[in-house]
Amino acid sequence: MPADGANASASHYNVRQTGLGAVPIKTLFKQDSYEFRRFFLLAIVSAGLMFADARVPQMALVRSALAVAVMPFHLVANAPVRTVRWFDDVFSTRGELTEENARLNSRVLVLEGKVQKLVSLEAENIRLRELLNASAALDETVLIAEVVAVDPDPFTHRVIINRGAAHGVFMGQPVLDAKGLMGQVVQIDPYMSRVLLVTDASHAIPVQVGRNGLRAVAVGTSRTQRLELVHVPDTADIKVGDTLFSSGMGLRFPPGYPVAVVHSIKHDPGRPFARVEATTSAELDRSRYVLLVFTEERPQVAAGRPGADHAPVPPAEVSGGDGGSETR
Amino acid sequence: MVASFLFAIMLYSLPLPQLLEAGRPEWIALVLVYWAVALPDRVGVGVAWSTGLLMDVLLGSLLGKNALAMALLVFLAHRLYQRLRMFPALQQAFIIFILIGLDLLLLHWIDRLTGPAPRTMHFLIPAATSAFLWPAVYFVLHTVRLRFRAAG
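Structure tokens for the assembled complex are given below, as produced in the milestone run.
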């Protein structure tokens, strides 16, 4: 096979001359003496680019322009995946559809039941907050997005979603799935954006143990669904099975969303802190639809989109929920 | 040739099951090395650099990271191409393992320089899978190239 390749290439040199008329006879064992110089130049250019990309904020504009330029490429590259999904949608049988419909209907019923209670609890919460003179909790609206691609590098946990600047997505916007917090938006292009997942090694999120309000910072481990709590003292009151909620401390994520469940705690006498690992509540590697959270009043939720509004609290009097609304 | 690159990028961004994720072959690098060895006067450091830059934009990685790695890869491949053509398949695969390993090492260094990256040697697994797939890639691209040229 290799010898064949050599012959083929050798004969190829004779054939190719027609392509560019000006090229003179090609020597067979050519070593391009300028190649090192060219490589060196390109290496310097890349180093400059990398430096600029990491340190110069204006590069975000250049990036975004480049991303638009390669958009068609992206579409072509992702075509097979989308075709498979399309086939999946089109060729599901009627039985499957009715079954799924029934399942979803019953789920909606259950969720609506829960929401009824939520409304009363929220109203009660607001009244209690008013009693405490605390600031009112902000209303949150969401926008539904679909995960269209996953970063192929196994050590960076990022996904691409099909909503971008045109839909009002902003930098650092929190992203949820049905089970919990997923991550935040780190790069925005006009029609798509990249979401850094909480399990990425460069990501950290302030959390609070649901049981007793103990604060901690959960750092990504670049392993699937796995977070690590850093600087937890050996004596801290934390148990396996505790749910960790976002604490809202970093002012980036809204408070109160489930982030992870404590999976294992190891006390090593040789280390100053306990080693606490947690499993994310969100199904980071499975969720196809995600929710983008708008915390302030932002009217960008496009009409006709299935972006659900959390209903504003009705002013009506509510019967006190079953005691202990202060769960956190 | 462009089609093969497009196909490689497609393969590269294809979702893989969890177990195989760590060993995702470097399709784009493989295709690039093939063309660099087969048509050294056409696929040079410049083409490699542009391909890498395209990858950077598509993958959203640090601009210039893959560009530098790909340029290095092709530069090294050009130093070796005459020998590489003469080697039996197994030896070729071994050289590919080293080339792509170097490429991944460079990428890993850049990652370590610019941010936190996990301290494992797992990043080298794709070099092994790529080397394993090299004979197949070579065979496919070689047949495609010959047929394409025969057609005009």
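Chain A is about 30% helix and 25% strand. Chain A touches chain B through 62 residues (CB under 8 Å). Further analysis is deferred to the final report.
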